[in-house]
Write a structure and sequence with these properties.
Blueprint: E1 6-11, H1 16-24, H2 26-30, E2 34-40, H3 47-54, E3 61-62, H4 65-71, E4 76-79, H5 86-95, E5 99-103, H6 110-123, E6 127-130, H7 137-147, E7 154-162, H8 181-198, E8 202-210, E9 222-229, E10 234-240, E11 254-259, E12 262-267, E13 270-275, E14 288-289, H9 299-311, H10 325-340, E15 344-345, H11 346-356
Parallel strand pairs: 1-2, 1-4, 2-3, 4-5, 5-6, 7-10
Antiparallel strand pairs: 7-11, 8-9, 8-15, 9-10, 11-12, 12-13, 13-14
Length: 359
């Protein structure tokens, strides 16, 4: 039954939470889908983002999440805080009978992610994860073109994501202090995109990750990954946060899809097609442009709309917490592969983790 607008509490208004306040939430507030009734951030200076962009009063902004949840009746909360804190917020949300929309990843470990999914299921609540890059305009355009059937069977995919964020705190302070920042905070999007475009669950993953001496990360900031999907499609990923130049950063990634009848290339938010027989020396910009689908919402804004429609009783959003365990399993399988030097069976790792938790 529709209950609009849905009342929500924004958890995290600093850092990327500020982007939620200024860009991601307002379009759906304007459309009457949601109403923000409170916001939480441990840094009171960051409350200005919720007050300026969401119109909240100072008394609606909290540094104490327990007080915020106790004093404000809400249908759901968002989670835009570091991954290590996600499970704690989920626990509190479920105690207060709330649904949840969280930033990726579900939690900072595969075990924690499975626990969260189990808790949400047992509570009879809904939880979505904002895998926003999968639903960006350029990735959606490429995905729909691959799935259109116009280009024959998909053979393999190549993704490049390279940036210069080697200096401490230039990519958010906490990412320089956690293990495996590239995988947990970067590749979590890109491996998810590759598996989604590949059209099947990932069967096997092999990865090498490392941190060059000139980077200021505590954990590995560079990586090369090979994926083998259950339907035979392959994918190759190059991820780098410590390069000298950022050639393909956030929202400017390069993805090439090699299909039977065409080569499809996405780069810097543009998609082009090179038909079979185009020649041996064609270059970027010489292909046939592929037009984007006609949509008014993309990324986070689109995912928020999908989440609300799910709350209305519609189909679960594609990035619901249970299905999104696949995304988390990919990054932790890649981390294990890098540490052991061996390929990892992704589905076996996920099932082993579920069994270890008794689920």
């Amino acid at each position: 039954m529709t209950n609009r607008p849905y009342r929500m509490i924004q958890v995290g208004t600093g850092g990327f939470g500020g982007m939620w306040c200024s860009r991601h939430l307002p379009p759906n507030i304007k459309d009457g889908l949601i109403e923000v009734v409170a916001a939480v951030d441990i840094n009171p200076e960051m409350h200005k983002n919720a007050q300026e962009h969401l119109g909240l009063r100072p008394d609606q902004c909290y540094t104490d999440i327990r007080k915020a949840f106790a004093e404000n009746k809400a249908d759901f909360c968002t989670i835009v805080v570091p991954p290590a804190l996600h499970e704690m917020v989920v626990d509190l949300a479920l105690e207060h009978d709330m649904h949840i929309l969280s930033e990726k990843p579900i939690a900072d470990t595969l075990e924690g992610s499975v626990r969260v999914a189990n808790k949400v299921k047992q509570a009879g609540k809904k939880m979505g994860v904002t895998m926003s890059h999968r639903f960006a305009k350029d990735k959606t355009t490429l995905r729909e073109e691959i799935r259109s059937g116009r280009h024959g069977a998909l053979d393999y995919l190549v993704c490049r994501f390279t940036m210069d964020k080697r200096r401490f705190a230039s990519w958010g302070k906490f990412r320089y202090e956690i293990p495996d920042p590239l995988m947990v905070e970067g590749a979590v999007h890109h491996l998810d995109i590759l598996a989604d475009m590949g059209g099947a669950l990932c069967d096997t993953i092999y990865a090498q990750t490392w941190n060059p001496p000139w980077g200021e990360f505590a954990g590995d900031s560079q990586g090369l990954v090979i994926m083998h999907m259950g339907n035979g499609t392959r994918a190759v990923y190059e991820g780098a946060k410590t390069n000298a130049a950022g050639l393909n950063g956030w929202s400017s990634e390069y993805i090439r899809a090699e299909c039977e009848k065409s080569t499809l290339i996405m780069s810097h938010q543009k998609v082009e097609r090179f038909a079979y027989g185009a020649g041996e020396n064609v270059r970027h910009g010489q292909g046939e442009p592929v037009a984007a689908p006609n949509r008014s919402k993309w990324g986070h804004v689109w995912l928020m709309e999908q989440f609300v429609h799910w709350l209305d009783g519609g189909e679960p959003m594609p990035t619901n917490v249970w299905d999104n365990l696949q995304s988390v399993a990919l990054i932790f399988a890649a981390i294990e592969s890098s540490r052991t030097g061996q390929p990892v069976k992704v589905q076996e790792l996920l099932e082993k983790t579920r069994r270890s938790l008794g689920k």
